[in-house]
Each structure stands twice: as C-alpha cells, then as structure tokens.
C-alpha cells in the first residue's frame, strides 16, 4: 500500500504546486490525460450523428417514393387509365350501317318493277305454220301459214304457248329478237314475262284445222 499512499501524496503536492504557481497552473492544464479523453469522444459523436442524419434522409425519401406510387396507382397520376376510344369506331360503324341501309333503300326504289305480261311478235322469214294460245283461252293466231316477211302481233299476255311448223320464223320477246333453231318436225315454246322455255311435243298448243 505504500505505492497507493505515495501516489496520493504526490498528487496532493502536485495540486498545491499548481495552485501557487501560474506557470505550474499552465502546465497542469496541458496535462495529457484529460486532453486525450476529450479528443477521443468528439470524433465518435460526430460519426454517429452523421449516420443518423443519413438514415433519416433515406427514410424520408423512401416514404415519399411509396406515397407517390400509391397516388399513381389510385388514378391521380399520369399513369391513370385513359378513357376508352371505342366511341368513334362505334359512331363510324353505325354511320356506315346507316349509309349502307340508305343505299339499299335507294336501290330498291330505283329497281324497275317486274313485268306482269309478256310481249310477243312473230316475224316469218319463210313459209311457217303458226299456232298461238294466250292466257284466258285466247287464240291470237289460230293455226295459219305465214309467208316470208309476214308479221303477227305484237301480243300481250301473262303466258303464251306457241307452235311453229318449221324454223322459218323470228320471235321478238319483250323487245329482244330470238332466232328459232333448225327443226324437222316443228317446235313449241312457253313464253312468260321472265323466260322463254322450250316445250315437249305433248305440251304444244293445238289449233283447229280448217
């Protein structure tokens, strides 16, 4: 224990000398022990404060980023869903349908009504036997022989049945000329407003003979 008491006595004498002498006081204030303790504490406090400030700034930036993404997801930002652009196409399609319907209506109005009667004229190009029956049991040509250049008609009826003894004739049906193909034993036709149909011999008209 002499050492401990020796250190205490030395410290007491040293304190007394520092109090009585100005030069000793200056040297006592420059003692290395307290200066080294305070110098070691200041850098640690500065470093810890810098880290804390940096962490706070990062936390604030992260919070702002999250808030901004939520606002954009809710539709408040520029990434909100744009309004549907189907209205112009719908308008265009409806307009095209309307124009198409108008065209169809105009076409129907311009279309000529279907003829209800057929028109027939017989022109002989040589000697030819002619028997012509019309609707209503009428007989416009009652089985006569025409010579070249002779004409019969024009006649009008909803339906004709015609028998020719030879091919020496030309038919004018609804304003259009039709030739008769060569035949050996005569030919028969059914004539309506829409068509001309060749008849079998069993359906030929029969005119009374003189």
Could you explain the architecture of this structure?
This protein has 210 residues and is of the alpha+beta class. It has a domain at 118-203. It contains four helices and nine strands. The protein has helices spanning 2-20, 22-29, 32-73, 86-110; strands at 118-124, 128-134, 138-146, 151-157, 160-164, 169-173, 176-179, 187-191, 196-199. The protein has a five-stranded antiparallel beta sheet with strand order 3-2-5-8-9, with no helix packed on it. β8 and β9 (196-199) form a beta hairpin. α1 (2-20) packs across α2. It is rod-shaped and about 140 Å long. The model is unreliable at 1-42 (pLDDT under 50).
What is the beta-strand fraction? Answer: 25-35%
Please give the number of β-strands.
9
Order of helices and strands: HHHHEEEEEEEEE
The coarse overall form would be rod-shaped
Structural class: alpha+beta
Strand order of the largest sheet: 3-2-5-8-9
Please bin the fraction of helical residues: 40-55%
Weakly predicted, low-confidence segments: 1-42
Query: Sheet with the most strands?
Result: 5 strands, antiparallel
Query: What would the average pLDDT be, to the nearest integer?
Result: 73
Distance between the termini: 181 Å
């Amino acid at each position: 224990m002499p050492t401990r008491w020796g250190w205490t006595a030395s410290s007491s004498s040293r304190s007394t000398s520092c109090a009585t002498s100005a030069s000793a006081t200056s040297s006592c204030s420059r003692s290395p022990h307290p200066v080294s303790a305070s110098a070691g504490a200041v850098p640690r406090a500065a470093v810890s404060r810098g880290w804390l400030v940096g962490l706070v700034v990062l936390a604030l930036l992260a919070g702002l980023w999250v808030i901004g993404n939520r606002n954009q997801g809710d539709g408040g930002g520029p990434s909100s869903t744009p309004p549907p652009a189907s209205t112009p196409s719908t308008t265009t399609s409806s307009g095209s349908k309307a124009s198409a319907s108008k065209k169809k209506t105009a076409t129907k109005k311009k279309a000529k009504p279907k003829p209800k009667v057929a028109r027939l004229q017989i022109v002989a190009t040589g000697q030819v036997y002619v028997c012509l029956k019309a609707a209503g049991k009428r007989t416009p040509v009652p089985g006569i022989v025409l010579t070249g250049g002779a004409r019969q008609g024009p006649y009008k009826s909803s339906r004709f049945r015609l028998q020719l003894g030879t091919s020496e004739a030309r038919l004018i049906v609804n304003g259009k000329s039709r030739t008769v193909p060569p035949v050996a034993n005569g030919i028969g036709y059914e004539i309506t407003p829409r068509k001309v149909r060749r008849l079998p011999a069993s359906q030929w008209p029969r005119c009374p003979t003189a």
